[in-house]
Write a sequence for this structure.
């Protein structure tokens, strides 16, 4: 019989086979999708943190050229000097002019007040400090730490997605610090007073795990920076 006259058999899947295949695909997706999303989120956080650190360091460097070393800047000298006019005077003179794509959000604005409830460490400062929002949707605020005539640390809380959840420390909110000392260049880095001069990863990891303890905050952002702006598998909060 000529080949062209041969009846060709059509191959088709049964409904049961289709359903089984769909089920397998669904199971595989359910197993891998959370991992993919988690990996993407970690990358996004690290990219934002590194960008923020670089942006702030550049602003400080430019300000130092115009205003001299940070030790001579007019700075509130007490940790509880958190009134908005003091913080605003510092930022508006030494930081704000050297940042682009940023706006100041007054704490009296209802939206900013809501952000303040998650960013600020206590209720009093919620009502007094302003928030500074970048075009990419991230934001930060400043509250002062220990400052003297020759050295000081100024603490900053940065939220890489600002209004979006979870609004939790070391998940989307991270601590940074401006550190200056007479005779040295002013540095902006992840961390806090607790992480100053710590160059041991195990120590930073333990501080990160115990991040809610008094005077132990900042370990997680310092750890991420130590790891080359990367969130490794042993990071405890993501």
């Amino acid at each position: 019989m000529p080949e062209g006259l041969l009846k060709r058999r059509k191959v088709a899947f049964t409904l049961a086979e289709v359903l089984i295949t769909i089920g397998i695909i669904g199971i595989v997706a359910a197993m891998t999708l959370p991992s993919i999303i988690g990996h993407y989120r970690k990358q996004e956080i690290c990219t934002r943190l590194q960008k923020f650190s670089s942006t702030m360091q550049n602003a400080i460097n430019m300000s130092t050229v115009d205003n001299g070393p940070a030790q001579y800047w007019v700075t509130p000298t007490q940790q509880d000097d958190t009134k908005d006019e003091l913080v605003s005077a510092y930022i508006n003179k030494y930081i704000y002019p050297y940042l682009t794509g940023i706006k100041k959000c007054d704490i009296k604005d209802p939206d900013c007040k809501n952000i303040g409830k998650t960013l600020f460490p206590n209720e009093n400062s919620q009502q007094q400090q302003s928030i500074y929002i970048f075009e990419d949707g991230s934001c930060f605020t400043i509250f002062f730490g220990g400052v003297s005539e020759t050295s000081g640390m100024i603490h900053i809380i940065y939220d890489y997605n600002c209004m979006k959840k979870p609004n939790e420390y070391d998940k989307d909110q991270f601590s940074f610090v401006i550190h200056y000392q007479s005779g040295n260049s002013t540095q902006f880095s992840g961390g806090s007073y607790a992480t100053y001069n710590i160059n041991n990863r195990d120590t930073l990891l333990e501080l990160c795990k115990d991040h809610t303890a008094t005077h132990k905050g900042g370990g997680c952002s310092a750890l991420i920076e130590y790891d080359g702006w990367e969130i490794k598998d042993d990071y405890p909060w993501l």
Summary: The longest helix spans residues 15-67. The beta strands are 102-105, 131-134, 139-147, 151-159, 173-181, 187-190. The chain is about 40% helix and 15% strand.
